[in-house]
Amino acid sequence: MSSIHLTESGDIKASVAVLSFIFSSAAKHDVDSESLSSELQQLGLPKEHTTGLCKSYEDKHSALQDKLRETSLRLGHLEAVSWRVDYTLSSSELREVDEPVIQLKLQAKGAESGSTETTVVSVSSKKFRVLLTELKQAQAMMNALQ
Q1: What is the CA radius of gyration of the chain?
Q2: Mind giving me the DSSP string for 95-117?
Q3: Which pTM value belongs to this model?
Q4: Long-range contacts of range 30-38, CB-CB < 8 Å, 24 or more positions apart?
Q5: Any signal peptide, and if so, which residues (predicted)?
Q6: pLDDT tens for each residue of 84-125
Q7: Most CB contacts within 10 A, which of 23, 54, 92, 114?
């Protein structure tokens, strides 16, 4: 593999994907440019190519690590919560109608897609109290970690 000739669009895309994977993996594991150069040469890449690639890697190493930290473990976030309490006075479908039902409407923005998704959940008042208690406990634990 003394000379690299990329003639097709698929070859170019594959090469870019491989280089992206190699650089992001090297930055993720904090590999120095000398070790990266040695590994690339062992894979068959000519020294003159590894020298140029590793110089670029060394120049942008910290910026690449910052970008990886920024984009890893991204979670969606809750944008809005609305609720209402429904109390059915009578129903042909239910035997007992003496308990209120809480309807929660959650709007969350996805981390990857960026689109907002709406979810509606109906729970009994007992289950809502349990949910609220557990959410308060989780919030206390998260606050203790800060």
Answers
A1: 27
A2: S---S-EEEEEEEEE-TTT--EE
A3: 0.48
A4: 30/65, 33/57, 33/58, 33/61
A5: none
A6: 998 877 777 777 777 888 999 999 988 777 789 999 999 988
A7: 54
